[in-house]
Amino acid sequence: MSGAPFSLAPGPTARDARRVPAELAARLRAALPEGTVLTEEGDRTAYLVEERSLYRGQAPIVLRPRSTAEVAAAVRICAEACVPIVPQGGNTGLVGGTVSGAHEVLLSLGRMNRIEDVDPLNFTMTVQAGCVLADIQAAAEAHGRLFPLSLGAQGSCQIGGNLASNAGGINVLRYGNARELTLGLEVVLADGRVWNGLRALHKDNTGYALKHLFIGSEGTLGIITRAVLKLFPRLTDRQVAFCALRDPADALTLLSMARDRAGEAVTAFELVSSFALEIVEHHTGGQSPFTERHPVYALIELAGSDADGTLRPVLESLLEQAFEAGLVADAVIAESLEQAAALWRLREGIPEAQKKAGGSIKHDVSVPVSRVPAFLKRAGDAVAAAMPGARICAFGHLGDGNIHYNLTQPEGMEKAAFLARWEEMNGIVHDIVVDLGGSISAEHGIGLLKAGELRRYKDPVEMELMGRLRDALDPARILNPGKMVGLG
Amino acid sequence: MSGAPFSLAPGPTARDARRVPAELAARLRAALPEGTVLTEEGDRTAYLVEERSLYRGQAPIVLRPRSTAEVAAAVRICAEACVPIVPQGGNTGLVGGTVSGAHEVLLSLGRMNRIEDVDPLNFTMTVQAGCVLADIQAAAEAHGRLFPLSLGAQGSCQIGGNLASNAGGINVLRYGNARELTLGLEVVLADGRVWNGLRALHKDNTGYALKHLFIGSEGTLGIITRAVLKLFPRLTDRQVAFCALRDPADALTLLSMARDRAGEAVTAFELVSSFALEIVEHHTGGQSPFTERHPVYALIELAGSDADGTLRPVLESLLEQAFEAGLVADAVIAESLEQAAALWRLREGIPEAQKKAGGSIKHDVSVPVSRVPAFLKRAGDAVAAAMPGARICAFGHLGDGNIHYNLTQPEGMEKAAFLARWEEMNGIVHDIVVDLGGSISAEHGIGLLKAGELRRYKDPVEMELMGRLRDALDPARILNPGKMVGLG
Predict the structure, then answer these.
(1) Which of A162, A171, A437, B250 is least enclosed, having the fewest CB within 10 Å?
(2) What mean pLDDT comes out for the span B375-404?
C-alpha cells in the first residue's frame, strides 16, 4: 500500500518531480549540519516502518533537523526542487498520515525536543514539536501544573504530531482535544517561510484563527515546529468507579447525572462492552470486579484540585442515587490508587486484548452523545446481518460520543478472509454513523487510510472549500500530498 | 467616518459597483418575501446608527431574511451585482464591524431568531444566528443546562455576532471564548452557496477546521446562519468574594492559589483598579465594602454544580490562607445572592461610570497573565509621561490576561482636546503591549476601528496568509469589505 499517496489524485506539480535523489541530498547536506540528512537504508528504516505494518514508507531521504531554521531551510530546498515533504513526529499514528512515497522526503521533528519555557502563572508551556507527550506531562507536573492530553501512545508520540492530528484521548470530556489545549504555534510554510504565531495569550482577537487551520491538518498546510500549550491546575484528588449497567441508554443517564452532580470534575466517562471486558480478562490477566457478566460497563473518573478529598462522598452518593434509580446493577469504587489503576487497565487493556483475540476491523466514530444507544443498536444489527458471528468490541469515550467500534473476527473464520471484508464492513458502519449525523473519524484522523472514505461522505461544498484552502497555502503540493483531503 | 470602508484599501471588484440601488432592490424584492427588503430611510435607521455614534452606516438597502435560504438568495443576487454585503447581528459591537458604506447592502440576521433544538444528553443546542444571547442562556437554563457565554450586551447582542467576533466576557477563564463553545456551524458563502457544518459532535477529525476559520472572521469569510452550541452542567453553588490587594502581582499570586485550590471552580477573577472603584462609587451609587482605599481589588467567583455548598468553606480557607500570607489586605465574602450581585455591580458598573467621568481613550488588550503587572507598570509610567493627569481606569479579566486599559480625561482638560490624542495614546499603550508579546484586541475584535493598527503591528507573513485565505473564500470581496484584515 506504500504507493497509495501517488494513486489518490493526480496532482500537477511536486509529484511529477522524478529527480535523482542524490542531487537533492547533496543540496540538503550542503545547507544542513552533519547527521541531519540520512540516505542509508539502515538509518532510514525506523522512519519508514510502522508498528502494525499496514504501510511501508519509501522516502530515499530522511531529514532530522534540530531547529526551526533548519526545517525552513529544508522545506525551501525541497520546494525549489518540487519534491514533496512528509513531516513525521513519533510515528504512532493509526491512519498512515506519515507514510512517505519513493519520490518524497521524510522530515522527522524528533530532534526538536526541547521544552523551552514553563510559565506557571500564565498556565502555559512553550515546547518544540518533537517533545514526547509524556515528557511534557512530566514537566508540567514538576511545575505544579497539569497538561491533560493523555492517550495510549504518550510514551513515544510527539506533540507536533498530536497537534497536526488534533489528538483526543481519555480527558477530552473535561479538557477538549489537542486543539483546545493550544494557545500559539510556530509553523514552517510550504515555501519555507516561518509563521510566528507563538503567542502565549489566553485571548487574542486580531485576525483569522490561523492556528486552528494548521492544527488537525495532518501536515498538509504547514509543518508545526513549536507550540505554546495551555496548562491547568494539578489534580490531587482522583476517584474511580467501575459500574455494571443494563444498557448504553442507562449509561447516558448516569453520565448526565454525574455531570449534574460533579460538573467538570467528571474527567473521564468510558464505555466498555461486555465482549471487551471478556477479552481483557482472557488475554491480559485483568479481572472484572463483578462475579456476574453484565451487558455493558462504565468507568467513571472524578478528579479535582482540592486536597481535602471532597470528591469521594460525591461519587458515593452519585452511585447510591443511580443504584436506587435502578440505573446501575453493580458498582465498585477504587479504595486506593492501585485499585484505581487496576480498574483503568480493564479499559486500557482493550487494544492489546483485541490483538490477541484475532483480526480486527476498526472504526473510530462519533455521534451526538444522545444517539450512541441508537448507533450501537443499528450497527450491531447490521453487522450481525452482514457477518454472522462477528464479535463486537465497542469501547471508548462515551462522554464525547466517540466509540471505538471494532469487530473481532468470528470464531472459526480465517483471519485473511475476515480482513478482506474491511471496506465492506466500514461501509456498513459508516453509513449508519453518517445517517445519525456522526463522524467517520472522531479522533484518529484521515491520513491515507480514510482519504477515500472522506471523499465518499463529505459534502462536496466542504471538500471544495478544503481544496481552496490547500491551494491558498500550498499550491505546489509540497506538504504531505495525498493525505487527508487527498489532494495530490 | 462612514466612508472609511472605502478608503482603507482599494479593491478590484465589488467596490467598483456604483449601480443604482433601485435596480438591485427590485431584484431582491422579486426574490424575497414582502417586508424583507427595506429602503425607506426611517426603516433603515436602526441598522445604521450605533449607540456611541462613532460611526454612521450608509447602506441604501437593508435586508431582514428569515431563513438560510433567504440569506443565500440575497447573497447570490448581491454577488452577481458585485455589491458588497455587511452582515449585522445585534449591532452592539465596539469596533465598527457592521458599519455599512453607501454602496453596500446591510443584511440583518435578527429575524432568524429561533432556538431550533436543545439536546440535554448531548449537552448541545442548535440555534439560528439572530437569537439574542440572553434568550439562549434562558433556554439552556430551562433544560437544566448552562450556556456560559456572558457579557454586558447579552440582552441585545445576537449569537451570530458573538461567533463572528469570537466574543469573550466574564467566564472565559473557565469556559473559553465563543469559539470554544461552538461545535457546529452553517455558513452562507460569498457566492451564495451554503456550507453545512452544523454538526453536533464533540469530536470530529475529518478535515480542516473550517468552523474556526469563520468564527472570529467578522463576517469577511462567510455569513453564519446557524450554530450548534456546547452546553454545560448548571452551576448551583456560587460564592463571590471581593478582595483588597497591595498590587497586581499579589493578585496574580492569589489567582494561582485559587486555581490550585479550587481548579475550574474559579469561574471569574476580575481586576478592579482603585480609580475604577472610585468612579463606580461616585457615579453609579455602588459602595465599596471597605472603609479604606486600596491600590487594587479582585473579584473572585467560585461556582460549582454540587448543591451541598462545598465551595463556601473552600473560598473561606483560600482567603484565610491568602491573608496569612500577607497577600490580601482585606476581603469580604457575599452572604447572599443579593450581596453577590452588589459585589458584581462594582465590577460591571465600570463602563457606565466611565461615561459619566468624562472622555475615555480605550484599549482592550491582553498579555500573558504573568506579565500583567509589568504591563500596568510600564503603561502607567508611559501614559503619565505623555499626558500628565490622565486617570487610568484599568479593569477586566485578569485570569485571561485581558485588561480594559482605559484612560479617563485629566481633570480640567477639554474633552475634545483629550479625544484628539486617541491615536497617539493608542500607539503608546499598544507598543508596550506588543513588546510584552500581547494583543491589541483581546476580545472586541478589529472591525474598522483597529484595521489600521492591525496592519501596523501584525507580522507581514501573517497578514499575507490572511489575505490568501480571504482570496480563497471571497475573491470578489462581497463580504464586509474593509473590515478586520482591511482587504477591500
Answers:
(1) A437
(2) 97
